[in-house]
Amino acid sequence: ELFDVSQVRGGTPYGATTIAGGDGSRQPSQEELSIARYQGEYVAGLAVKLNG
Predict the structure, then answer these.
(1) What is the value of pTM for the model shown?
(2) Residues 37, 29: contact at Cβ < 8 Å?
(3) Which of 6, 36, 37, 48 is the most buried (most CB within 10 A)?
């Protein structure tokens, strides 16, 4: 999903992002939300492992 260039959207190798206008007219797409959800689950799993 990070390499799909068929539409304007956030998402970088460093993590989830959203491209938005200053007036709030653009909301996160389903793909952006999916990337953010995956990243959150992944980081939560790492935190559980580190907490031991």
Answers:
(1) 0.69
(2) no
(3) 36
In the chain, where are the structural domains located?
1-52
All residues at 6 or more sequence positions from 4 whose CB lies less than 8 Å from its CB, including other chains? 31
Virtual torsion, Cα 16, 17, 18, 22, nearest 10 deg: 150
Backbone region of residue 24 per phi and psi (left: phi > 0; alpha: psi in -120 to 50; beta: other values): left
The CA-atom distances, in angstroms, between 32 and each of 25, 41, 44, 47 are 16, 14, 18, 23
Give me the percent of the chain exceeding a pLDDT of 90: 29
